[in-house]
Each structure stands twice: as C-alpha cells, then as structure tokens.
Amino acid sequence: MVELADLKTVGQPNWCPGCGNFPIWHALKRAIVELNLEPHNVAIFSGIGCSSKMPHWINTYGFHGIHGRPLPIATGARLVNNNLTVIVVCGDGDGYGIGIGHFIHAMRRNINITYIVTNNQVYGLTTGQTSPTSDKGFATKSTPTGVIEMPINPIALAIASGATYISRGFSKEMKHLTKLIVDGVRHKGFALIDVLQPCVTFNRKNTYEWFSERVYKLEEKDHDVTDKQAAFLKSLQWNDRIPIGLFYREIRPTYEDELPQIAEKTLVKQRIEDIDIRALMDEFV
Amino acid sequence: MENNSLSWKIGGEAGYGIMTTGLIFAKVCSRAGLHVFDHTEYPSLIRGGHNTYQVRAEVEEVFSHVIHVDLFVALNRKTIDKHKEELAPRGGIIYDGDKIPLSKDDLGREDVKLFPAPLLRLAEESGGRRIMINSVALGASVALIDFDFEMLSGVIRDVYRGKATETIEFNIRAARLGYDYAKSKRMGKDFGRKLPKVGAKKQMLLTGNEAVGLGAIKAGCKFYAAYPMTPASSILHFMAAQERNFSLVVKHSEDEIAALNMAIGAGFAGARAMTATSGGGFSLMSEAIGLAAMTETPIVVVVCQRPGPSTGLPTRTEQGDLKFVLHASQGDFPRFVIAPGDVEECFYKTIEAFNLAERYQCPVILILDKYLSESHKTAEEFDMSKVKTDRGLLLSDEELEKIGEFKRYQFTETGISPRTIPSQRGGIFTATGNEHDETGYVSEDKIVRTKMVDKRFRKFEHAEREIPEPKLFGPEDAEVTIIAWGSTKGPIKEAMKLLDRDGMKANFLQILYISPFPTNTVSKTIEGSKRTVIVENNKTAQLASLIKEKTGKEIEHRILKYDGRQFFPTEIYQRVMEVL
C-alpha cells in the first residue's frame, strides 16, 4: 500500500504562508495514496510559476518544464508510455494564457491526462500582474487602471473543446478537491480540474473569504453531469454564485485507444535493436 | 548512337502532375541501372504556377543537377519561353504540336530537334482526362531514348500503386499512345541520343528527407511529432505512412512549439524521439531546445532550410540558418549540429544523431536544405552492418537496484550522468528547466551553478574527441581547396570533375560535423592549402565566419549564391577558375 510518507521529498514547498497551493499539494498526494499509485508509475508535469514547482515536492517522477508547455511535454511522455499515470499541474498563466492553444488541442484529442490548473487569477511568481482569468476591472502592476478584457472561462471552454471530465475545485475544500482528483485520474480521457486558488500576496480581491461566500457544490444541487447544456449554463455562473464540483462527464475513446501500435506493448518497452528495414528500402527501388 | 548521359526536364502548369511524371521518368532510368539525380522547382502555390522537374541520368555516378537540358517536355508554351536557353546543342523538345505553333526560327536555332506530338488528342483518345498529357509525354520520352515500353508501364504501376485500377490503366494507355506515336514518327532516330541499359543493379532512388526517415525508423525512433512546413513536410508524410508498420506514434501537433515539447516528453519517458521543421518552425522551437539541454533530454531535430527571413521563398533552397541553429535558445550550452551532404549521409547520420543524443543526453540537430531534402538520388541499399544502436548510460532495473541513492545529474568525469526513465523503481527524479543540483532539485547556489554548466560542457569536450574528422576529397596537394558544408557537396563534386577535366588540381574539405567543430583539422587544412575557397548558398558565408571564429583563419575567396537556387556545377567551376 502506498502511504503519504512514500511521497515525501527532501525539499519542502516555499510558497507564501497561507498560499492556496498548499491544500492542492496535500490533495494531490492524498489522491495518489487513495488511488494506491506507486510513485514510480506516476509522472507529474508542470510549467513555470509558483504552483509549477510542485513536482519537486512530491516523490514521483516529475518534469518542471517551460512556461505554457507542460501539456505537450506530458502528451509526448504519455504516448510513449501509456502505463504511466500522467498528471499536469500548472497555473492559470500557463494553462489559460501562454499555453491555451495546447489546452484546447489536448481536450479535443481526449488524451488520458489529469490537468490540474491552480487558478489564482493573478501572476504570482512575477510579482502580481494580470492573468487571463483576472476579473474585469482588476487592477495590477500591468493593468494599473484595471483589466479591460473579459476573463477566460475555462469550464465553458472545456465543454466547447470536447474535454470528457470537467470540474472545478476550491483550495479551502481539500476533501472535495481530493475526490475530484481521484475521479479525474480514474477517468479515461482528459480530465480538467480548475482549482480556485487564492493568492494571499497578490490577489486581494478573490480571497478565501470572497470565494467562501459564493461557492456551492454541484453535487448538492441535483446537477446532471451528463447534460452538456446544463453544464454550460452552470459554467457561466460567476460573481454571485460560483459552482464547484463536477460539471460534465462523458465516455469517449481516448487518443491512446485509437492507436493499435501501443495496444499490446507500450512504446518504451518495444525493442529497437535489429529493426528490419529491407522491405522498406525495396520500395525505393 | 548511344550516349552515356541525358538531362531531361518536364515543365508545365502546377496541377498537371509534373512531380509524379518526373519521378516516373527518374525511376525508369534508375531501374535501367543508370545513376540518377533529379531536381524540382516549384513556386509556393497549388494550382497554376510553373513547375519543373529535371532528371539527370548517367552511366557514371552523378551528384547534382546540371544547367543544360538535352530533352525538354514542354506541357505549355511558357516552358519553352522560360527555359529555351537551357537547351543543349542538338537538344529536343516534345510539345503539343496541335496547341503550340513552334518553329526553329522561333527559337533562333537550327540545331534544335522539334518533336511535336498531339499530346491532348492522344490523352483524350486514351479515354483519360486532360491531365494525362503528362503520361502521353512520358511515353514519347521513353520512346525517344529507346527504352522498352514495359520499363515504363512497370514504374507507372508501382508509382500509382494504391490508386484506382482505372486510373492506372488510363495512364498506361495514354503512355502507350505517346510511345507508339513517337516510334511511328521515328523521333528516336532524329533525336539520336539513346541511353544504355546498364544492367539490373538493385538501387534505390530517394530524397534526403526519405533517407532521414529511413534512418529514423532504423534507429528505433518511436515518436515523431511535427507541424507541416516545406521542405520538411515529406519527413512527416513518410513517418506517418510507416506509423503502424514499424510501431511508432506520429503526431501532427498543433504547432512547432508543441512538436518539440512533445518529443522532449517522449525522450524524457525513454523513447527515441524526433521532430523536423524549417527555419520558421525552428524559431518557434528555440525555447524548447534549451529545455532539452538543461534537462539533458535526448532529442533529434531536423532543420530543412529554405530562404528567409520570415516566410522568405518557401519552396526554394538556401543555407542561411547555420548560425541560427548553432545559437538558437538562450544561455550557453552545447549541442550537436550535423550537416549531411547527400542521401547516404542523411541515412547514416540520422542514426548517429539518435546515438549521440542518448549518449550525450542533449539536443542533436541535423541541418539540411530544400535541395537535399527534396532531390532524389540513386543509392545502393544502405548497409546495415555499418549501423549500431547505442543508448548510452540508460540504467537497467538491475543496475539501478545496486545504486544506493540515485542522482540523475550526478557529477562524473565525462559529465555524462546515468539516466533512468519513468516507471523505473528507484530512479525517481524531477527534471527541470531551472538550474538544479545533482538530484535535479532547483538550485541557485553559485558553486552548484558553475559545476553544472561545466558538467554539461564536459560532455562535449568528450564528444569532440570522438566525432570523425572531416573528409578531404581529391588530392592532398591541390591548387585550390574548397571548403563547404551540406548540400553543396554534390555540385562541388561535379565541379571537381570539370576542374579535373581541365587538369586543375582541386580538393574539397566537407565539414559534416559543425558542432563540435573540428578546429584542428580545419586549421591544418587551411594552413596546408595554396588557396582556399568557401562555397555557401547564403549571403554572409556563415561557415567561413565560424571558421574564423574557431581557427582565427580567414578563407581567401568566397563563392556565394542566395537567389533561392542551388549552385550549378558549372557556376562553381567557373568561379573557382577565376580564383586560380
């Protein structure tokens, strides 16, 4: 049995005290334990930002890559080793800003990756600039007079892009978030877990209190997770009431399911010495 | 009369199957045992532009295209107007006499042989579509050089394999009508240039890109991701077609950024992985090149150059990206840059690229250009005894068990640290684009930083000692030493034939491994040369500049061309003669 101690690393998180990343970190480790995933069969990929340091503090294989690109890196790894549990953790800058193109394509291909976006609606590690999910009017160093654009709506975008597991968690609801991650990893296909993650240093608007007054759990509201239209309507709720939990789930073949070349044996286990190309060369004669 | 050589060229409007027709003619010559080099020119559009395909077939080995044409197939008037200067003395033109009024007076030349044939009428008679004028012209061409029709019909069947039986039969019928027409008019006798059938030697006819693809498959490339971009796209097409036959995953990704990052993910996970692109796509990949270097992830990147900057001339050729690939991405880190010069090197060096990437755990860049990527050349089937697989310090589970505490980036004498891949128990680590300590943990410690930079470069010091020395073609004592890299190898070897014919002693130093740079050999060669000439298909003589940087030595003479076209051997010959 895998235990929390198995996931312990020498280094410890260096996030600000009270950072919304701590509960996400705990939830992810608990999910791995609950799923009984052996650490060496898990790989956690991340981008750049406060939350993207997380792979260093969980004792699994990890890849702390470059800004916005964890999904392509994770996709390559997953396609050559489909026995690996692949989890991506990154921020809203990575996921919904610089890397939003990869996000949409990963969803439409329904690759079996669990995508946890720690969404604090601000750029933390670069000391407080606007993010793609900052509320309209949010004043930051890069938008001193307030953000002009509408924020990205990741849940609505995911519904439109063909993701097959679409959910939102909240840092303060760690048990609830743990279950979302557990179910997301168990789900065969692309699982989005957008996490409302207060940044205690640079976002003085969307605080724990602000969210606590607004969030409610979809599970408690008789929401049908197979109803795409209902999910879309729920995805549009923000200012006064903010739903968390599972918005939508669908069973569709994964990208990997459509690749007969990896059905029997994962690519990294296939022998590469002595590949016979004589017949292929003959085609050029 | 039999001749030992023929230069044949078909020209016409894009959309008239010029590329397929040219390939069929080239393959007919190749199967006759002749050495073939072919060369295409086309603008960046799908319909209506002017396309040409030149096939050079000779008894002796050929390494490049040539400027002259012995037999033209002009599918339209424009081909004649545009290319008549290229027609060799007593050269012939096959054209549609019903559509194009043409006389020797029009051309202002008495020596030209005119072969009017009712191409469209015969295409229609064959029952096929208008486009089959290309097959009619093929039939006439093969009749003119006095090859058997069966040689042509066999190639048509093979090249069109997979198409509807009806399409294949229409094309063969159209070719037959063209063949019979030419025979009935005794055109071959008038043309007077037969090609010999050398014998049933088994040889391939393939492009540089196809050779790269073959090399990648042989090397055990299990993951290939790319975004289409001329002239690299044909590698993607080749790999995609083999995906299920050789059990690999080929991903046409959303962009080049994703392509290289996916390949890095695959490399990290333990598969041999590759991507290919042209300069524009490589610009997008620049950041990830540094990531591969920092995380010490093996990766092979093929850059097929075309003229820039920006979109440039998308379907033409140039060698303008050497300095770019040598320096792309921020920071100081070593990378391999290898510049194959022909299809054989494309194959063997691709395999070597995978070995180097894993042995040294770093990015390896193969640099080609449109001319090498898309020109076909005959080659003997590649020799598998020359090929080996070296996966470097990839720890087995047993080896890993013996190691107490595994450190992915352990400081070693060679700088190379043993590596593990996900799913290996006891091999857990986190790779990071940040500077890190031996365990992989992010570190900004000044001592660790210095040692890590040194470790990455130490690998390369080791590599410098192991890469082969550059090859010197021609006599040791020469009047002139040509120095070049990449696809100019072919035209240079041809120019050397011309120089030799004139009794001029020239030799040629080909820089195949550009990084690490073979400083000593290049330096000594320059010192021992009477005259040095650099030949590059770019404006600024990028290799000459690198030679200056590495050796402190100036190359005396520069032969440069940057009009988007490859050197003709005669151009190099003439310009070398000016130097002498």
Describe what you observe in this structure.
The complex is a heterodimer of chains A (285) and B (580). Chain A is of the alpha/beta class and 285 residues long. Chain A has a single domain (4-282), classed as Rossmann fold (3-Layer(aba) Sandwich). Helix content of chain A is 28%, strand content 17%. Chain A has nine helices and ten strands. Chain A has helices spanning 21-34, 70-80, 92-98, 100-109, 154-161, 174-186, 208-212, 228-235, 278-282; strands at residues 42-46, 61-64, 85-91, 114-119, 122-123, 129-130, 165-170, 191-196, 215-217, 242-249. Chain A has an eight-stranded mixed β-sheet with strand order 2-1-3-4-8-7-10-9, sandwiched between helices. The longest helix of chain A is centred in the first third of the chain and has 14 residues, at 21-34. The radius of gyration of chain A is 20 Å and the shape is globular. With 580 residues, chain B is of the alpha/beta class. Chain B folds into four domains: 5-201, Pyruvate-ferredoxin Oxidoreductase, domain 3 (3-Layer(aba) Sandwich); 206-386, Thiamin diphosphate (ThDP)-binding fold, Pyr/PP domains (Rossmann fold, 3-Layer(aba) Sandwich); 397-466, no CATH class; 471-579, Rossmann fold (3-Layer(aba) Sandwich), CATH 3.40.50.920. Helix content of chain B is 40%, strand content 20%. Chain B has a seven-stranded mixed β-sheet with strand order 9-8-10-11-13-12-19, with helices on both faces. In chain B, strand 12, helix 14 (343-360) and strand 13 form a beta-alpha-beta unit. Strand 2 (61-64) of chain A pairs parallel with strand 15 (430-432) of chain B.
